Amino acid sequence: MRNNLFVLETLLKNHPTNAQANAFPEQKIDEITAQFGKIKQEWMESAIQVNNSKTLQNETLQTQYTLIRLQFVLADYMEINFPANAVTPTENIPALTRLANTLEELQYALQECFLPYIDVTQRIPLIIMDRFKKSVLKQLPEIKRLFTTKKVNTKLAKAILQPFEAILEPITGQKMATGKLVTLYELMDSLTEMLNPANQAPDMTMQLISYACYCNLNSSTVITAIQEVMTQYMKSMEQHKTILYTITYYTRHFEELNCKPHFIYDHTNRHAKSIILEWLKEYHTIYQKEMEEWEAISAILPGSKILTSLKVDELGFYLKLLTDRKYIMNTNKKQIAKLTCESVQTISKYPVNQPISEYNLYNAMYTSNYTSIQAVRNMLAELQADATTALKELNKNNVE
Q: Organism's domain of life (predicted)?
């Protein structure tokens, strides 16, 4: 691994992308990538041995440092030679992309195979810590901007950043524990991902709480902020009922924290997590009831997933047809499936002639007014019962 690092650094330094295209060592970089792939396979096959070998544990830590350095080398090279506002020579990208992807896979393999057995209190070399600080501090302004432009709990956001900044600011020339380095890296990666408009969560405040727990931010300011947020949620029953999607997402997330054998999870913020688990337990029954009703309808109406091209006025027509005239479309499941989605679209803010995407339908189901959803679903249940009765009578008459 360390030999490959030296070769890679030499290649990248000696062959900048502005050199002639045919001089770029793409084949050599692919050869290094292939070697990394073999290393990953060896890791997967020998992971269990690490638990009983102090030598292997030390080697694993050295490998971790080397891998981080490799990623830094590649990131620096890409940043210098492929600036975001420049025209990128596409003929040079494939090999570098494959290399970056393989390094990322190696990072995951390292964590899954070895780090659960490693003493995370061991210290990170200064060169790694200084490079990491530089990378993180570069991202902080962008993350702070997020907290002023997105609808998140500002107090909670500041509380999360306080211990994070406190760790980074005064430590120049001081070592940091392996576990803290990785958890801080995880936090930065997750918070940065929130800046991606394609990954907007239904409730970003809950997402921040998740990160605080995941990264073991045990400061009193974080705990206090989380308690205040959860208290605010508790005061509004209606607000609880409008974030059912968020409830199920974080229930699964915290269940994973409790069972997945990953060294980071063993250091999760137990205090903050217990606050959320208590809240989730109290309101998870609401979600279960909702999903049971929805799954029951979906089981009866397998055509319910064809709704992506429906328009609001079409849904309104079918609702009126069924409610005003008691017309049961028991022979056309597609029509009833369209009606099922009325529980979402009635309180959605889509223009009348705008098609509703499957993504919007799914999210609207859990961000809409709970009472309205229940009222429409109760009506649907009555209509389905009428349809079942009519079908039974029809079958009985046919038999006779």
A: Bacteria
